[in-house]
Write a structure and sequence with these properties.
homodimer, 395 residues, alpha/beta
C-alpha cells in the first residue's frame, strides 16, 4: 500500500534518537540534573541577538511582498551577491552571486549535490567516522556510499586505504571538516594531499571527481586550527554550508551551495543543481531567512562555550584514562571505548547515566561520540561518573 | 558528468517563466504600465499585518532556542495540536496533532505523499487542466501521471472518461479545488460522486485508492461556492495545505499534510510520509513559521481583491466575446482561446501586450490561463486590449 522503503526510513529509529528518548524517560525518573546526555548535536548556544534584530528590522522596514514572496530558485540575487562578497573577504576567494545556490540547510545542500551529480552506478566516498545520514541520502539518489576506514590516531585521512577505494565509478568524495563526530579539523596538508591524489585520479580515469565539502561546522574551529577553503586547493569542489550551527538556527533550514566558476562545467553543474532542488521540492530557501543571513553576513559565531566545554570534557576524559584526540572544532569528542564492542560500552555507560553514541553508528567501531553542546555544569558533574565507569573497567 | 535528467529539469524554462521574462523585457521597452501580465500565480495581496505582528511577538517573547531549534520531523507538537483544533472548528472534522505533518509548503507536501505511496508501476491520476509540476513530481518518484481530459463546460470531473482510466495500478487521484488554472471549485456533488466511484474501484481491485487533495487555494473561494473538506466524504484522503496563497507567504515554504485516523493504515502511511520527507531532505518545516501559522490559526484570508479582480476580468472578457466559466475561487480564469491553437492565440495576444499562458501547458489545449492576482488598475486598462484582440479574430 505504501513504499516499503519509505515506511522503513520513516519509522526505524536512529540510534541517536533512541538514546535521546531513553534519556528523556530516565530524566523523568531520576531528575534532569542527574542525566548526562551527550547524545544530540543540537547547538546549545543561543541564537545571537543580531539575528533577532535583523528579523525585526526586516519585518519592520521592508514590504511584506518583498520579504515573503517567491525568490527565484537559486535565491534572492542581492542576498547571493552579499554572501559571495563576504566569503571572498574572509577566505580570499573570488565568487559572485551566480556561484551561490541558496538551500534549506545542509542536508538539502549535500543531497542536491548528490542528486545533481549521480549517474548510473556512481560511487560517493565518505571517510569514517561520518554523519550517518550520508548513507541514506546517497542511496536515495541511487548512488553507492563507499567508506574509507578511519585513521584513528588523528582522524585525518588514511590515503593508502582511500586510494584503493577510488574507481572509475567514483563521482565525488565527501569532506566534512570540522568533523561530526570526530571533532577533527583537516589540516592544510591533508587538503593538499587530497587535491593532488584526486587530480591524478581524474587524469587516470579521464573524468572529473568532485569534492563535496560539507561545512556546517566551518565557524566552530578552535585556536591553532584553521579550516582551509577547499575551492582554493581543488577546482572541482562544491561547498555546502549551513547556518544551523554557526548562528544556532537548525530549525529554520537555511544554507547554500557554492558552485565555483572553476568546476569542470559550471553551466552543466549549476543547471543540474537547480533540477535536483526542483525534484526534491525545495522551491526556494525560506525567503525571510535568506534576507536575515545576508543582513548578518560576516558577523561572528559565538564559539566560546563550545571551546570551554570541549576543553573541560577532554581534560576530564584524559584524567579518567580515556584515549582521545584533542578538540579541534565542531562540538564533539570521539574517544576510544574501554572495550572493543562500543555498543556494549555505551550500554554500560548508561548505568552511570552517561548517554553516549556508539562509534559503529558513524562507521567507526570501538569508539564513541560525546556531543558537548550542553550545559557546562552538566559536563562538570559528569566527570566523576566517567571516572567511575573507567574504574569499573580497570576492575 | 552530471545527471542529465536533473540538468534538463533545471535548465528547461517553463512556458510561464518564458512569458514572464518576455514581459519583463517588454516592460523595459514600453514601460511597466503598458504591459498586461497575466502570467504568474504570485499572490499580490500583501501578507496580513497579523502575520507580521506574530513574527515580532514570537521573536520578542520566546527563547531563541525554542523558536529556532530543530523540531521533530512531523513538526512542533503544540503547533500541530493548535492547527488540528482550528481545522476541526472550521470544518467539523475530528483531527488531533498526530494527524498533521508540517511541511515546507504544498509542493513538498504533495511530493512527500507521492513518494510515500508510490510502489512499482503505480499510476497517479490528475484531472485536466492541472498544475504542470504534478508531472515532474510524480515522475520524479517513479510514478506515472495519467490525465483525465477536461470537462470544459464547467471544469468539474468527466466521470465517464475518469472511470475508464482507473486501473489496478492506480494508487491515487489528485484533487485541486479551488483549481489552478481553471478557477473552478468542485461541488459537493462532484466530491460525493468521486468518493462513491473510488469506493467501488477500491472494492473491485481489493486495495486502497487515495485522494491527494492539494488545497493551497482553499481559503480563496467566492460567494456561493464552498469547498467541501474531502476527508469527510472519503476515508483514504490525504490533505495537502499551504499558507502560500492564504497568507501570501509563498517564499517562506510552510504548510502541512493531514493524515486522518480513518485512512487504510494510519501508522503505515504516517511512517511512509516521514520517510519520504527524510529522503527529500525536509528535515523539518521552518520552525519560526510553524509557530507563526499556529499563532494565526483561524485568522481570515483577505480575498476581497481577488474577488473584485475576478469579477472585473470575467465581465470584461464576456463583453469582449470570450467564453469563460465564472470565477469561483483561486485567482485564475481559464477562457476558451479564439482559435484552436492556444499557443498561436497567446502569441497573437502579445501584440496587444496581453501576456497569457496557453492551456496546453495545463493539459487542456484550446484554452488559456489569465492569473488575476495583479493590480486592479492593470486589469481595467487591459479590457480594451482584449476587445481589440477579439475584434482582430472577428476580422
Amino acid at each position: 500500500m505504501v513504499a516499503q522503503k519509505m515506511y522503513e526510513l520513516g519509522t526505524k529509529k536512529s540510534t541517536i534518537r533512541t538514546i535521546f528518548e531513553y534519556g528523556r524517560q530516565r530524566a523523568a525518573e531520576v531528575g534532569e540534573e542527574n542525566i548526562y546526555d551527550f547524545s544530540l548535536g543540537n547547538p546549545n548556544v543561543p541564537t545571537p541577538d543580531f539575528v533577532k534584530q535583523a528579523v525585526i528590522d526586516i519585518m519592520s522596514t521592508m514590504s511584506p511582498t518583498a520579504v515573503h514572496g517567491y525568490t527565484i530558485a537559486p535565491g534572492n540575487p542581492e542576498v547571493r551577491e552579499k554572501l559571495a562578497a563576504s566569503i571572498n573577504e574572509r577566505f580570499g576567494t573570488n565568487f559572485a552571486g551566480r556561484n551561490l545556490f541558496m538551500t534549506s540547510g545542509a542536508a538539502a545542500a549535500i543531497t542536491i549535490c548528490f542528486k545533481a551529480l549521480c549517474e548510473e552506478n556512481n560511487e560517493f566516498i565518505a571517510f569514517a567516522p561520518f554523519f550517518p545520514e550520508y548513507r541514506c541520502f546517497v542511496e536515495s539518489v541511487g548512488g553507492k556510499l563507499v567508506v574509507v576506514p578511519a585513521k584513528t590516531d588523528d582522524f585525518q585521512i588514511d590515503f593508502t586505504a582511500f586510494e584503493k577505494l577510488i574507481t572509475g565509478q567514483t563521482k565525488a568524495v565527501i569532506v566534512n571538516s570540522p568533523n561530526n563526530p570526530s571533532g577533527a579539523v583537516y589540516s592544510e596538508d591533508t587538503i593538499r594531499q587530497l587535491a593532488s591524489l584526486l587530480r591524478a585520479k581524474e587524469k587516470e580515469y579521464g573524468h572529473p571527481i568532485f569534492i563535496i565539502s560539507d561545512e556546517p561546522y566551518r565557524e566552530i574551529a578552535f585556536e591553532g586550527y584553521t579550516v582551509p577553503y577547499v575551492t582554493k586547493y581543488y577546482e572541482n569542489t562544491l561547498v555546502c554550508y549551513s547556518y544551523s550551527k554557526s548562528f544556532s538556527l537548525p530549525g529554520e533550514r537555511i544554507g547554500y551551495i557554492v558552485v565555483p566558476d572553476e568546476v569542470a562545467d559550471f553551466g552543466k553543474i549549476f543547471g543540474a543543481v537547480a533540477g535536483a532542488a526542483r525534484v526534491l521540492t525545495h522551491v526556494n530557501a525560506p525567503s525571510l531567512w535568506q534576507l536575515v543571513v545576508a543582513h548578518c553576513a560576516g558577523k561572528p559565531s559565538d564559539i566560546e562555550t563550545y571551546k570551554r566545554n570541549g576543553k573541560l570534557l577532554y581534560e576530564g576524559l584524559k584524567a579518567a584514562g580515556f584515549e582521545c584526540v584533542r578538540p579541534q572544532g565542531a562540538f564533539y569528542l570521539f574517544p576510544k571505548a574501554l572495550e572493543e564492542d562500543d555498543n556494549a560500552f555505551c550500554e554500560r555507560a548508561k548505568k552511570y547515566d552517561l548517554l553516549l553514541v556508539p562509534g559503529t553508528d558513524f562507521g567507526c567501531p570501538g569508539y564513541f561520540r560525546a556531543a558537548y553542546c550542553i550545559k557546562t555544569e552538566t559536563i562538570e558533574k559528569s566527570l566523576p561518573r566517567f571516572k567511575e565507569l573507567a574504574a569499573e573497567y580497570r576492575g
